[in-house]
Amino acid sequence: MPSIQANGISLEYSEQGRPDDPVIVLVMGLGTQMVAWPDSLSNGLASLGFRVVLFDNRDVGLSSDTGSQSIDELTGMVQRVLMGAKTKPPYTLDDMAADTVGLMDALSISRAHIVGISMGGMISQLVAAQCPERVESLTLIMTSSGNPELPPGKPEALAALFSPRPGGNDREAIVAHTMKTYRIIGSPGFQMSDADLRAWVERSADRAYRPAAPLRHLLAVLSSGDRREVVKRITCPTLVMHGIDDPLVPIEAGRELAAIIPGAQSRFVPGMGHDLAESLMPIWIEAISTHCRSVSPDGRTTPARTVEAP
Q1: Could you give the number of structural domains in the chain?
Q2: Which of the residue ranges 72-81, 85-94, 117-126 has the most confident prediction, judged by mean pLDDT?
Q3: Residue 261, domain CATH
């Protein structure tokens, strides 16, 4: 996979599809590499006539390491933020939004359909609000506005998110920890077999493992705070997708985004949790491709509607 200089750092990226096709940029979530996007998703979208660009966010995978803090330092910073103290994060979601736009600049992409998942959805909100001329359409998957009044995730899901990650020398411990996490936050209606989940987890573990990255990402999310006023400025055609059974970012977060983004459409999926289960991909491919294709030359979509997906 190639790398490119963007926003002053190196970002590892990959592309599928023809160069002249409409571009979809996939923005990944907290601490997760681009190889976690199922091949069936990127290949499926490419087969439908899209140029699909995916990349490693800073600090994960093969992109630049942009922090110097130790695990203990970062853990202490997270604890202080959770207790209400002010702490300067290594970087912000605004920086990561600038990374995304910088990648588009480096690849000579003037406008793109932006698809963001979880933290990637938060980054995508900022791209759409701050650089509307660069965004053809927006798809937000299992993400939130940062509204502190929204219901929290289930205790076991939050515990999995905040649990210490193993050191970098014990591959089996890394794999077991990640599999346990995804069993807790995953989709009850679209579960992967143990063999498929292990293969998916091992793919990332063998490519790169940076236990500090999720903590830096988490600090960026926590420091972003309440983005509702920013989200309300989004003007591009927007689709909100969310799992009705998401234990980490409850469905109320998706419903709120759909309500406060002008003209947003929504698709709420029973049985979907907070993962990228292979059996979800046909639903995602259909929803994303239909939304992107619905954008007319003047940038508008059909009237807002809500779909409870089967």
Answers
A1: 1
A2: 117-126
A3: 3.40.50.1820
